[in-house]
Specification:
alpha+beta, Arc Repressor Mutant, subunit A, Beta-Lactamase, Enolase-like, domain 1, 3 domains, 5-stranded antiparallel sheet, 3-stranded antiparallel sheet, 14 helices, 10 strands, transcription
Length: 354
Amino acid sequence: MPDRTNLISEMNDRSREVFRRVVEGYLENGDPVGSRSLTRTMNEKVSAATIRNVMSDLEHLGLLDSPHISAGRIPTQLGLRMFVDGLLEVGKVDQLDRAKIEETFNTDQGDVSSTLDRVGSVLSGITHGASLVLTPKHEAPVKHIEFVSLDPSRALVVLVFADGHVENRVFAPPIGQTASSMREAANFLNALAQGKTLSELRRSVEIEIKTRRQELNTLAAEMIENGDAFWQGEGDQNERLIVRGRSNLLGTGAEKDELQRIRSLFDDLEQKRDIADFLELAEDGDGVRIFIGSENKLFSLSGSSLVVSPYMNAERKIIGAVGVIGPTRLNYGRIVPIVDYTAQLVGKILSRKS
């Protein structure tokens, strides 16, 4: 089989047009496209038999598939990828869609988190898919850390940042923790924290715990290690994945096994699995990226596609991402500019707020 990057360039005009029309027809209505329907839309007058021969060649290349005997063709995952990379025509954001997106930002109500909640809702609404918004980490240097016992099974960590931001997070302390062990743990962390962000502090803690474990009270060491809750515990607002519009992917037209795969996908997302991978997908390059089916392990089982774009702060550093999940039969030409435009607006608004 030829190198997939050269498949489209090696096609003649007729093969390229048949391929494009099959994919566009499938993306529009989800049905296989037959040779007879193509004879009515082709730029040149050709017979149905000629088109069937072209379709057969494209199927042999792995770009098309025939779901049923004597049925029309649909694009394979490789075919969709080739279409997106080589033939997709991306339009501008529709004026109505643009107005709905901009309306999300035309209010100063709420903080950054509530703004991003609204972004997720409007994205799922206008795309009729599910939206993902990865909120930015709070990366200001830590000024002070304090542990407060709530009861034998719960403790509170208070984080004060140099920019005045304060966060309170609950975690499970080690059994038998004492007031002195909590003070020792806090003193240990405060000595390391000055001038460091949370991510930088975490790396320092991992190193220091290994080299200075004998100097620390055992309970204090466990307190610090259990205190990883202030980076990745439940309810963590420091990095949050907002998922909106799951009902859009659970419509009545889906098959039972497809519904189960989509539910499993959302279970993974809601349990925050692979969030780091999700952000890394966006960090691999500027602009919109498209992942079709098994190209992304997070969506391989559900047979879904992801259109995702990073957003940046004023220093042009990637701090989060927005995206849309839908079936592989997405209207990519419409969704791509919507995601791109939304990501650019999010970056501008967060830069202004900061």
